[in-house]
């Protein structure tokens, strides 16, 4: 039977490359979520890919997920890849900058995990949270990224907390702290900088990690980086 993998934040960058990789695997059914994904559906001809518009900043996350998943009962793998980045000096951050960063990078993910987890507990599965090197303890830090990196640090810590709280279940939680990957988000954080890793190369690593590494680790925070930044 096909395993089901959910990618949140699947419309572009690393997330879109992940969906393309998983779509090529006929043993997988892929559920791809992002705010604008239905309009830009690049996987129209794939019968194992289902795309839905979904916003982590919505006021109705649980209702939205209930509607989307009424057609999909079981979930084996979940990749929380969605993220937003604000690059601004700390004193210039608006309330909205801070709120949106924490809503999308932390709170929306927490609320959606309260939806996904009960569906995974009996069968087991692997939840992979995508964080950043800026959120990895002791890493080099960059001015302007305070709300982004601190919100990603919350996601990193949440991974450890959930691994502990659900350690008696068969669901595994791990977190990948990515270094620079050539995407729109990187251009916003470090204009003009060229990353040594493409989105498709990083997606290859994340896909393999998600499908296989749950057998070897739980609650781990792993730096995945070739460069600074
Ligand atoms: N690129 C890097 O160098 C780098 C480094 C460290 C960590 N990361 C992390 O890696 C992940 C992927 O980053 P990327 O570089 O591929 O970024 P990206 O190209 O900007 O893609 C971000 C994805 O998140 C989705 N997203 C944003 N806001 C959302 C919302 N409110 N609800 C649902 N989905 C939302 C976007 O889709 P829509 O806009 O259609 O909603 C998009 O699919 C992020 O978590 C990022 O923080 C990236």
Provide an overview of this structure.
The structure is a single chain. With 229 residues, this protein is of the alpha/beta class. It has one domain (3-224): 3-Layer(aba) Sandwich (Rossmann fold), CATH 3.40.50.720. 37% of the residues lie in helices and 19% in strands. Strands 3-2-1-4-5-6-7 form a 7-stranded parallel sheet, sandwiched between helices. Helix 1 (13-23) packs across helix 6, helix 2 crosses helix 3 and helix 3 runs parallel beside helix 4. The model has no long low-confidence stretch (mean pLDDT 96). Bound molecules: NADP nicotinamide-adenine-dinucleotide phosphate. NADP nicotinamide-adenine-dinucleotide phosphate binds at residues 9-15, 34-37, 54-57, 81-84, 104, 130, 132, 178, 180-181, 183-186, 195, 199. Residues 9-15, 34-37, 54-57, 81-84, 104, 130, 132, 178, 180-181, 183-186, 195, 199 line the site of NADP nicotinamide-adenine-dinucleotide phosphate.
């Amino acid at each position: 039977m096909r395993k089901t993998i959910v990618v949140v934040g699947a419309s572009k960058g690393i997330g879109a490359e992940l969906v393309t990789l998983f779509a090529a695997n006929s043993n997988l059914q892929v559920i791809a979520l992002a705010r604008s994904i239905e309009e830009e559906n690049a996987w129209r001809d794939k019968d194992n890919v289902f795309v839905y518009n979904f916003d982590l900043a919505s006021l109705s996350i649980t209702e939205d997920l209930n509607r989307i998943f009424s057609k999909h009962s079981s979930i084996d793998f979940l990749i929380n890849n969605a993220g937003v980045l604000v690059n601004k000096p700390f004193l210039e951050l608006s309330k909205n900058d801070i709120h949106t960063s924490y809503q999308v990078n932390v709170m929306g993910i927490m609320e959606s995990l309260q939806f996904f987890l009960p569906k995974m507990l009996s069968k087991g599965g692997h939840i992979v949270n995508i964080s950043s090197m800026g959120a990895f303890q002791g890493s080099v830090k960059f001015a302007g990224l305070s709300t982004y990196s601190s919100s990603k640090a919350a996601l990193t810590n949440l991974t450890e907390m959930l691994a502990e709280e659900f350690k008696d279940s068969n669901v595994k939680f791990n977190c990948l702290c990515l270094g620079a990957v050539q995407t729109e988000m990187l251009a916003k954080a470090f204009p003009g900088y060229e990353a040594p890793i493409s989105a498709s190369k990083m997606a290859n690593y994340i896909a393999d990690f998600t499908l296989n590494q749950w057998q070897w680790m739980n609650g781990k925070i792993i730096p995945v980086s070739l460069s600074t930044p």
